[in-house]
Amino acid sequence: MRPVLTAVCLACLLAACGKPAKPEAADAAASAPTLYIAPEDVVTVQSSAIAGGPVITGSIQPERRADLAAEVAAVVVQVLKDNGEAVRRGDLLMRLDDTALRESLTSAEESVRSASQAWEQAERQVQRLKTLQQQGMISTQALEDAEIRRNTTQSELVAARARAVSARQQVTRTLVRAPFDGVVSERRVSVGDTVQIGRELVKVIDPASMRFEGLVSADRVAELKTGQTVRFRVNGYGNEEFAGRVRRIDAAANATTRQVALIVDFADDAKAPRVAGLFAEGRVETGSSDRLMLPESPIVRSGEAATVWRLDGKTLQRVAVKLGERDARTGLTPVLSGLAAGDRVLRNPSRTMTPGQGYELKPAAAASAAAASAAK
Fold it and tell me: For burial by CB atoms within 10 Å, which of 13, 48, 231, 277 has the most?
């Protein structure tokens, strides 16, 4: 009989140890105050089409842009346009000191006149000697020597004219002009600055030629094609969504970042931002699928795990969910498992809630009053 009693006692002990867990959880849920919820605090899980494709990040840049640099070494004597000012093609933006260059031009032009006179004199001499040679009054050698002198002066005239053209061009380069209609985006020098050849002076952009210059991971390059739709958001424009199409895909990936550059044209140029350099992020739409989607606020994350609070009958239940990659375009996260279409979850769950806690749906004003009364 002793073994039987021992087994019975052991069974009783195990039963006694196992029973308190459920009553304690039930007691905790029962003792928790009823949660009053307004309809706007509830999110209904719905299925929606999500665009699939690689994420693209980059910035808005003008297609027409010019970095105007100094073509002569000189001092800046006048700045006529500043940042943000509109310009027309050919407008004078900046003037450099041309004193020394004009002196060189004057000297070159004098050389042209002198060489021209020498050539004209040599040509007349050749013509006179030809007449005399026909009359037998001079030798053929004398005529040939005159022709050689004429040819030499002709070469000197051509060289002098080339130097004059170069000097004239150098003077012209002291006037910095707008290459097209646009806006001055960056002035890099001021009056009095000494600039060397190649020094950047001013940048001009065409705000009407904006495009999205983005980067995509090389791991997804096989999915990319010209003409694909790209949807993206631009920093500074809130939740406004822009659409575009892939115009060009670079043939080489960056050796350091392993990313491929894309050029995306705006679908509607009239809606394109007019400010260059703004950060943009979106997705190249290579396909779409229906997924259950949730905003970020109902999701409670703890490390790799994620849970939501589902309205189950008259109580709240904590449900573990498996999530996909967040859609940067919409800000929604796909739910792979744990919820079904039509489930209702709490939009902004509190840390003090317990599984099985009761709730009651009330209008916003009633819910606030009830919550205040419960807190007292």
Answer: 231
